[in-house]
């Protein structure tokens, strides 16, 4: 199969769809790989690194799309790329369709095969291709939150770890999934007092078992969220509903109950955000303030640490890329139920019901 790795063109996105190590494995399996020139530079991988493992470097993104049977990316295609995607072409990347109706319609019109990293699902319900980026984003959420709590950034002026004689900052984590666990771990490591909330008691029991005593759990209800937001300095939204739009756990009116300078980091922004006032921001312009509450809503947080993120992503995507390249998408998905769940849009039809539900469409779903 001919596999293309284009350069990411989303704002400040420095990751790349595949490391040279991944390309080496594809070439070893007799596949042709085209990599767009400078695609890997932001992650610390250069054209010569790809050439040394057998890739051919192409100058333009148009050439990569035109010559490739399968595109391996990181982020969803943006408007400039819509017209480059061909009928029958496999596009393997993060899509997050439920948060973007224009993207969904564009991919339907392209009649391509859209396989979304975030909905590939193992038998135990885990999301193997989302997990490493969730781990990165969860850890980064605390780093960024700590920075924006500083007064020059319009935060409360709180040091999360405190100092002797001064109480530590308080961090509220919504969701005890991968993002939430990693965020709680980082915040606890800094010495902050952490409250983590979820509706899944099994997850809360797990948190209680593995976290230190200054990480406490609470069952998530609107009443309890309203109680905690009044006295927490940093709020991290880490809620995920597979393939669906995130629920609004914090509504606009709740902002007035927070102390001025409170910081919200909404990691769920890719799925529409779990805060009503969330709107996607970029690394170039990452924050905005509503009712004196600082919102950090960067939609590609792991893109700020591309070396770590690209390696972590290729580690988990490569087995699926090889399976698709070796067998074609139909045979690969028939033989692998996890990969089959990654099918979102196929040849002009939406095949993932949560996407239709997100837009209240009445189109038929292919199974």
UniProtKB/TrEMBL annotation:
<dbReference type="InterPro" id="IPR036291">
    <property type="entry name" value="NAD(P)-bd_dom_sf"/>
</dbReference>
<keyword id="KW-0520">NAD</keyword>
<dbReference type="Pfam" id="PF05222">
    <property type="entry name" value="AlaDh_PNT_N"/>
</dbReference>
<protein>
    <recommendedName>
        <fullName>Alanine dehydrogenase</fullName>
        <ecNumber>1.4.1.1</ecNumber>
    </recommendedName>
</protein>
<feature type="domain" description="Alanine dehydrogenase/pyridine nucleotide transhydrogenase N-terminal">
    <location>
        <begin position="4"/>
        <end position="137"/>
    </location>
</feature>
<dbReference type="InterPro" id="IPR008141">
    <property type="entry name" value="Ala_DH"/>
</dbReference>
<dbReference type="Pfam" id="PF01262">
    <property type="entry name" value="AlaDh_PNT_C"/>
</dbReference>
<dbReference type="GO" id="GO:0000286">
    <property type="term" value="F:alanine dehydrogenase activity"/>
</dbReference>
<feature type="domain" description="Alanine dehydrogenase/pyridine nucleotide transhydrogenase NAD(H)-binding">
    <location>
        <begin position="149"/>
        <end position="297"/>
    </location>
</feature>
<keyword id="KW-0560">Oxidoreductase</keyword>
<dbReference type="InterPro" id="IPR007698">
    <property type="entry name" value="AlaDH/PNT_NAD(H)-bd"/>
</dbReference>
<comment type="similarity">
    <text>Belongs to the AlaDH/PNT family.</text>
</comment>
<dbReference type="InterPro" id="IPR008143">
    <property type="entry name" value="Ala_DH/PNT_CS2"/>
</dbReference>
<dbReference type="InterPro" id="IPR007886">
    <property type="entry name" value="AlaDH/PNT_N"/>
</dbReference>
């Amino acid at each position: 199969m001919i596999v293309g790795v284009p350069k990411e063109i989303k704002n400040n996105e420095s990751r790349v769809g595949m490391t040279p190590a991944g390309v080496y494995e594809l070439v070893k399996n007799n596949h042709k790989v085209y990599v767009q020139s400078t695609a890997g530079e932001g992650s610390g991988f250069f054209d010569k690194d790809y050439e040394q493992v057998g890739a051919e470097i192409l100058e333009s993104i148009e050439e990569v799309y035109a010559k490739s049977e399968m595109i391996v990316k990181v982020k969803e295609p943006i408007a400039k790329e819509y017209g480059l995607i061909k009928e029958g072409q496999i596009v393997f990347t993060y899509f997050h369709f439920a948060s973007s109706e224009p993207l969904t319609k564009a991919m339907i019109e392209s009649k391509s095969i859209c396989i979304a990293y975030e909905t590939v699902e193992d038998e135990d319900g885990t999301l193997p291709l989302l997990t490493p980026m969730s781990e990165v984003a969860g850890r980064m959420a605390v780093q960024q939150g700590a920075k924006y709590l500083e007064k020059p950034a319009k935060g409360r002026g709180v040091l999360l770890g405190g100092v002797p004689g001064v109480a530590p900052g308080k961090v509220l984590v919504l969701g005890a999934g991968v993002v939430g666990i990693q965020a709680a771990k980082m915040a606890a490591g800094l010495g902050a007092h952490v409250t983590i909330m979820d509706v899944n008691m099994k997850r809360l029991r797990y948190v209680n078992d593995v976290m230190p005593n200054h990480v406490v759990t609470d069952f998530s209800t609107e009443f309890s969220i309203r109680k905690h937001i009044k006295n927490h300095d940093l709020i991290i939204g880490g809620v995920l509903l597979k393939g669906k739009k995130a629920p609004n756990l914090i509504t606009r009116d709740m902002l007035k109950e927070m102390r001025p300078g409170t910081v919200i980091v909404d990691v769920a922004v890719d799925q529409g955000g779990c805060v009503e006032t969330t709107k996607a921001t970029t690394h170039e312009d990452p924050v905005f303030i509503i009712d004196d509450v600082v919102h950090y809503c960067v939609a590609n947080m792991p893109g700020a640490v591309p070396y770590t993120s690209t390696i972590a992503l290729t580690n988990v995507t490569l087995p699926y890329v090889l399976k698709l390249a070796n067998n074609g998408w139909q045979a690969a998905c028939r033989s692998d139920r996890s990969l089959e769940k990654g099918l979102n849009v196929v040849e002009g039809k939406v095949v993932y019901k949560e996407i239709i539900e997100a837009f209240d469409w009445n189109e038929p779903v292919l199974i």
